[in-house]
Amino acid sequence: MKKMGLWILGLGLVMVVAVSITSVIGKQSVAWTADEIKLIQSLSLRALAPLAQYPSNKYAQDEQAAKLGKRLFFDTRFSKDGTIACATCHVPALGFQDARALGLGASIGTRRTMPIAGTAYSPWLFWDGRKDSQWSQALGPLENPVEHGGARTQYVQLLEKHYKPDYEAIFGVLPDFSDPKRFLSIAGPVEDRAANAAWQGMKEGDRELVTKAFVNMGKAIAAYERQIVLMPSRFDDYVDSLSLANQTNKNLTDLEIAGLRLFIGKANCVQCHNGPLLTNNEFHNTGVPMPASKVKDDGRASAILAVKQDEFNCLSKYSDATSNDCAELRFIQSDTHLLERAFKVPSLRNVASRAPYMHAGQLQTLAEVLQHYSYAPVAPSGHSEIKALHLNVKEREALIAFLTALDAPIIAPE
Fold first, then answer.
1. What is the DSSP secondary structure assignment for residue 356, as one 8-state letter?
2. Which of these, 140, 188, 175, lies nearest to 306 by C-alpha position?
3. Would you tell me how many other CB atoms lie within 10 Å of the CB of residue 162?
4. Spatial CA neighbour of 152 closest among 203, 105, 198
5. What is the distance between the alpha carbons of residues 372 and 378, in angstroms, rounded to a whole number?
6. Along the 414 residues of the chain, how does pLDDT read in single tens digits?
7. Which three-class secondary structure state does DSSP give residue 207?
8. Which of 55, 72, 166, 357 is found 20 to 30 A from 264 (Cα to Cα)?
9. Of residues 351, 410, 412, the one with CA closest to residue 221
10. Phi, psi of 410 (to 5 degrees)
C-alpha cells in the first residue's frame, strides 16, 4: 500500500506538471478564432505589398544603378584610409549587420548597426530616423568620422577614376574633378576642420557639381539595397495553410504556436511589431538601460530637427520627389518631449540570429529582452511607454521559440 500510495502521488505530480506546461504552451487542437487568423495573416511576409517607385529616387528600380550601387557598397576605397566599405558593418553573411553591440568603422560608434533587408519600406532610417530615404541614409556614413570618415571630393574623384563609364551610363556626364586647384582631394561639409575649410573655400558652383555626383552615389547604393530582401520563414509557411478549417499543419511546434498566441495576446507584441515586417516603423521609449559607454542619447527627439534640416531630405533640391510626395516629412511629429529617448522599432525578422539587442546592444539575449519587458524598469530618462507584462519563465520560453521561427534566408544580388 505504501508503494502504491507513492506511485499514485508520483503520478499526481507528473499530471500536475503536465497540466501546468499545457496551460502555458497550449495545444494545436485549441482553435484560432477568425479574428486571430486575420491578425496572424496580416503578419505574413506574403502580405507585404510590392515595392512602389521611390519618389525621391527615380533610379531606385534601375538595374544598372543597382549594379553600380553593389560595387560601391563593397568598395573599401570609399573611406578615409581605404579599409571601410558599407559591407564592413553590413556583412552579408550576418544578415547585413555585424553582430556587435556598437558599430565599428573608422572607430567605435555609439549605436548598434541596423540590418538592411526590408528598409526600402521604411519612411525613416537609422535608430533615430534622422534620414528619410535609403539614398540619403547611404550618404551619411560616408562622411561620418566614426564610420567611413572620408569627404565628398575624395569620393567623386574615386568615382571618376574607377567608375566613370558605369556612372555616365546611368546619370549622364560626370564632371572632370581632376583639377586640384578647383577640387581639393579632401574637402566636404564634415567635422574635420581642414576638410571643411577646404570645402568652404571652393566656388559654390564646384561644390554643387561635387554634391550632385555624391548624391547619385547614394541613389545607386539605395538601388542595390532595395534588392536585399527577406525570404519566408517557417512562420510564413504556417500562415499559408492556416484557416478555420485547417489548424493542424506542422510548420510550427506546439511551443512555437503557444509563443505566437502570447505574441498576439497577453504579451501584446503586435502593438509595435505588426505588419509583414513586424515593425510599425515608429519610435518608442521602452525604458531600455543606458549603454555601457554611458553616452547620453535622446534618440528621436534630436533627430526631428536633423531630418527637417537635412541637406538630402525628401523636400531637398536633390530629391526627385515633388512636395506632394513627401507626406511623412511634411507631417512629421514634432513633439520632442514625448519622443525623448525614443528609438525605432526594429523588424523582428531574423531577430533570433541578430544578438545583441536594443539601440546600443545593451541586452545580450532574447531572454534578457523578454525579462526587460516582463518587469518594465523605469526609463533612465524620458517616459517609458511599456507596462510590465509579468511573463513567467515558460511563457518567455514559448515567445523565444516563436521568435526563432521567424528566421529565414536573406536574398541579395550575387
1. S
2. 140
3. 15
4. 198
5. 10
6. 444 443 333 434 333 333 333 444 444 457 999 999 999 999 999 999 998 888 999 999 999 999 999 999 999 999 999 999 999 999 999 999 999 999 999 999 999 999 999 999 999 999 999 999 999 999 999 999 999 999 999 999 999 999 999 999 999 999 999 999 999 999 999 999 999 999 999 999 999 999 999 999 999 999 999 999 999 999 999 999 999 888 888 899 999 999 999 999 999 999 999 999 999 999 999 999 999 888 889 999 999 999 999 999 999 999 999 989 999 999 998 888 889 999 999 999 999 999 999 999 999 999 999 999 999 999 999 999 999 999 999 999 999 999 999 999 999 988
7. helix
8. 357
9. 412
10. -110, 130
Rounded CA-CA distance 357/365 in Å is: 7
Instruction: Tell me the Cα Rg of the chain.
Output: 25
Residues in CB range of 258: below 8 A, 6 or more apart: 24, 25, 26, 398, 401, 402
Kindly list the distances between the CA atom of residue 111 and the CA atoms of 127, 297, 399, in Å, as whole numbers in the listed order. 8, 9, 26
The span from the CA of 109 to the CA of 51, in Å, is 31
At what angle are helices 204-225 and 63-73 packed, to 10 degrees? 100
Which residues are paired to 97 by β-bridges? 91
C-alpha cell at 385: 511607454
| Cα distance between residue 267 and residue 261, in whole Å | 9
Residues 6+ apart with CB under 8 A from 50: none
Q: How many helices (H) and strands (E) does the chain have?
A: 14, 4
Residue with cell string 531630418? 307
| Domains of the chain, residue spans | 23-49+232-299+340-411, 63-225
Q: Indicate the CATH number for domain 23-49+232-299+340-411.
A: 1.10.760.10
Three cell numbers, residue 284: 518608442
3-state DSSP assignment of residue 104: strand
**Statement: 63-225 belongs to CATH 3.80.30.20:** no
Task: Please state, in angstroms and rounded to a whole number, the distance separating the CA atoms of residues 96 and 105.
Answer: 14
Judged by DSSP in three states, 340 sits in coil
Angle at 196 between CA 137 and CA 321, to 5 degrees: 35
